[in-house]
Please model this.
Amino acid sequence: MENVDKVIVVGAGPAGMMAAIKAAENGAEVVLLEKMNRPGKKMLITGKGRCNITNVAEKQELIRNIPGNGKFLYSCLKAYDNEDVQLFFLTLGVPTKVERGGRVFPVSDKAADVVDAMVLQLHELGVKLITDARVTEILTEDMEASGSDGLEKAVQKEDSHSQRAVGVKLADGREYQGHSVIVATGGMSYPGTGSTGDGSRWAVRLGHRVVKQLPALVPLETEDEWVKELQGLALKNVRAALLSEGEKISDMFGEMLFTHFGVSGPIVLSLSRQAAQELDKGRFVELELDLKPALTMEQLDARLLRDFEKYQNKEIKNGMRDLLPGRLIEPVLDAAYLKPDRPVHTITREERRKLAEVLKCLPMIISGTRPIAEAIVTAGGVDVKEIDPKTMESKLVKGLYFAGETLDIDGYTGGYNLQAAFSMGAAAGNWSVWNN
Ligand SMILES: Cc1cc2nc3c(=O)[nH]c(=O)nc-3n(C[C@H](O)[C@H](O)[C@H](O)COP(=O)(O)OP(=O)(O)OC[C@H]3O[C@@H](n4cnc5c(N)ncnc54)[C@H](O)[C@@H]3O)c2cc1C
Model:
């Protein structure tokens, strides 16, 4: 096979661009193939166009914020962490700043600056970036066929790989050959940006297991009409618990939003990964809102009593204005079986108790998630058990590397997904050269 010093990278997202940069820094001749008409289309819309590059959290905290196989990333995060990412961009002329929750953004607040800096660096390192180049196939050879002498064959016998990657084929029939192929084609969300799950389809053909791909960081749909009627209402400092078949499996504290189809906002997005998985198993999924998480039942009852004394001659819908946003009062009263026009002084102790229970635990039925195309990330993908966590090389196909969201890796919002993509890309880029 010719071109033995060449690394082929498929997909010019953050993982692929970082892989290409690292391979080129190590002296390899690198070809980066991108099927869209420009690199980094998804990156341009990250962080609402501001690109939340990474998070300043400690390594263990980074891993905790990547519920989809964060521990797999330990080695590559150790080799290339959030400080390396910030230094990398500073060196490229993109200084960063830290915002609420440790989120790191470019000082310019422009995702385009981040993408442009990476593209410029690719050019400076002599990487051949080819756009409108849709890869359709990973080319492989049997390991026996690729050995040129007896010694090499003997070494290969020790190896678990039965095939070796030798290049890629494009939709237009062109072929590119190299000693290593790095697949960084992303997940399945926002397909208009180019990520349509191609990498996981090739992985299956090459014998890899792919964990079912489901939406994560995605809004949830509800059956309850009252939820949809609250469209546009945002709540702060609430706790949402996720229940599967009546059992609480997770909860989150923070902000959420009512929409025309159900619920969204930070805490809902964080719970959505597990909701999608439970729904996929055919389970009954609910969300319970604690509207007053800072108060115990007793404290809340005492608070209601105080408000009821103050507003004893009013209708109850007007007696709760100090406690809840106006639009939320009727749905809460409805869940507590209280008519909104009941005079406050007629509410019994039991009814007040029931009202407190509803305020601590307002249920809604989750009927589904929004489609994967609307998800911020994809959970599932190429099974990490068949990937070397230090090098990102496939344990099945020699010279084949995976990096980024095409793998079964996904994190919460806060810069964790891009950090994961950069760390995996750096590992794959370095080791595609060092392993050769
Ligand atoms: C709206 C939105 C906002 C986000 N905001 C943030 C944020 O602020 N911070 C954060 O950490 N994460 C954020 N994310 C998640 C983050 O963007 C992704 O996790 C990250 O882009 C994954 O990087 P990747 O390189 O693996 O894949 P991608 O960025 O998806 O790149 C894959 C590339 O491969 C190309 N490709 C695919 N198939 C082929 C093929 N057959 N041939 C050639 N090329 C191919 C695609 O065109 C694409 O350019 C956001 C995601 C979305 C959708």
Summary: The two ends are 14 Å apart (CA to CA).
